[in-house]
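Thread title: Can someone regenerate the structure for this chain?

I was given the following input by a collaborator and told the matching structure tokens would be attached. They weren't. Posting the sequence so someone can regenerate them.
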Amino acid sequence: MKSKHSNFLVIWLHSNIDEQEEKLDYLSKHLQRYISSIKTFTDIDNCIDYVTDLIDTQVFLILSDRVVEHCLTLIENIPQIYSIYHLSNQTDENLCNNLIKDMSEFQENLIPITIIPNANLHCLDPSFMYIELLKEILLQMKFDQKSKDEFVDMCLIKEVEYETSHRIIDEFDQNYKPSSAIQWYTRDCFIYRMLNDSLRNQDTDVILTMGFFIRDLHRQIELLYQHLANEKPSIVYRGQGMFNNDFERLRENKDGLLSFNHFLSTTCDQDLAYARACSAQDDSELTGVFFEMHIDLSIQTTPFASLDKVSYYGDREKEILFSINTIFRIRQIEQMDERLYKVKLLLTSDNDPELNKLTDHIRHEMICDSKSGQLTYLLVKMNNLNKAEEICQKKIKLPSDYTTMSNDARLHNIIGYIKTQQNDLNSAFIHLFEGLKIRQEILPSDHIDLAASYNNIGELYHTMGQLSNALDYHSRARSIWEKQLESNDSRLAKSYNNLGEVHRSMGEKAPALMYHKKALVIYEKTLPPTHPDLAMSHNNIGLVYGTLGQNSLALQHLQKAFEIVQKSVQINHPSLALILNNIGELHTSMGDYQKALTYHEKARKIQEKSLKPDHPDVGSSYNYIALVHFGTGRYLNALIYFSKAMNIYHKSLPSIHPDFIEIHMSMGLLYYFIKRHSLSLLHFQKALQISRISLSTNHQYRAIIPQVIATIRRDFIKFSLSNNFSFINPNCIVIEDELD
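Best answer:
Regenerated them for you:
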């Protein structure tokens, strides 16, 4: 195996496939648990072209005698091919068994394991928290026939991706009932792979569409767990391969925690688990791991159940299935053979105290009248903005009474916030002001919900670069919250934080630092130490210190922000990229360009997975990378990245946005360095024009830019005369309104 792919298919390459119709039927019938069909080829070149075009898919390839000698050297190093089977070397039954064994191991080896560093023996990955909160909501939601219909529709869309047949989807549609969840999960025609893929990748769209099934499966396991009584096993086993680097992390973290953020399959059959672990040794990229899992029956843990009487395939594997989010402690690791290890685990109720505090706090923040409201809040936290908006849009109704109007105003406010984060500013404007209009009609002028509308409108205006309007609306929100809330309420801290950011954008460093420090004091009193809002507070203070030239203090706060946010958001959350870019920008200003570039490249990798290509934050990353190249004298590279940033800004920002000022200044300075004075003047002129519209009269750029323009004009004239460009008339070099 070459890489971690979640999908697979079986391909049969034979010079005359019609001769093998019986074998094909036999395999198709016995492999239906894993695939719906076998793809066949008779032409070697067509087969190779098809396989090499596959993305995130591995191939189990069957070859006949006639083609082996012609194509083996061509295909053996293709990364999409997981394994190759020679038809002549085995009977139909043996071939079928080998395929089943390998496909089963392939799926098991993909099961994600979160290994917690033993530097903090009680630390869990934040993804554990989000799956736990999502599970809690799903278990309490009401699902109906429409939920199943939506899932069936999704299966039809994903039919090719999961090699699923209409027949099996129709059978699920007709026959599924809550009490058959385990049967369908163990049958694994498509549900097993789809569910575990979504949990592994935290694909909330699929997780939510399968919410009814997750609830049914968990409840069935829970019911069986209660009926096990004294028959619960004290030891279960699991054999699988782990990628070598993942296993090294596990081996280095004895006594640490290990979590499975999905439904976990184990067995009471020690020999079966051991055989599966041994089989991983055949792949040089894997280490075979034989897990021996000890269960303390006296403590309350994640429920588990024996599937002997309820599995689709009976009791042949003596399977024990655990529900989502099982935690073990790594007790012992011993080598059994080359690249084969026995790992003793203890099922535990231990947890991460800091993550528990954060989970409880977010659980409290999510409190509202409906499960859909809780789900929306959580999805926003998880950065699944599209799904959160979809839920809100479904809930908006024509206002008919106070309660409905109040709820619609809240939904408009949430959608407006989401649209702001997505940089869909026109839609954000419509929804936020619609929500404000409703609230102004039904609420007193000092109601805290009005403050929430003012706050989000302030954020919108800040994103649009309209700083005076942003300051106005954030000030309105602060006035209400200061009047209505306790002095240590986190909403008041959010208001101070937003005011601080607007003042920083306006170049007013003293009030910016003052507001950010006030926000930090409140956050430190009211939030868990790993809350993302606390991280952003440190980030913003670090940025202000950076503008003040106090680099050591700036770096201290930015590193603190990154340390916190790593513990509170998922691995590809945009806030991680934001802080990485800010640390990189600080290193650029300190002249440490290589370190700066490393941070910016890490940020870009996160943004590739979490933001649209034309999001302004992506443009900012290109701008930061350009500055690094500029600082190291790689002017052509700098120009390329400045141009990328400028193109994104033109697509995503209003034409007078303040972010244009700095990039025009940077490009103007670059052109000045390479003696392209006319282009340099052009960019500084544009920077000046935008600054007069977007910045206050006392902003430092309003004074600096005209001085730079005057200097460039003088140098342009000198350069022209010294290079015999005497035909240039100095009086024709005019920059309109250079001075205020």
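The longest strand covers residues 326-337.
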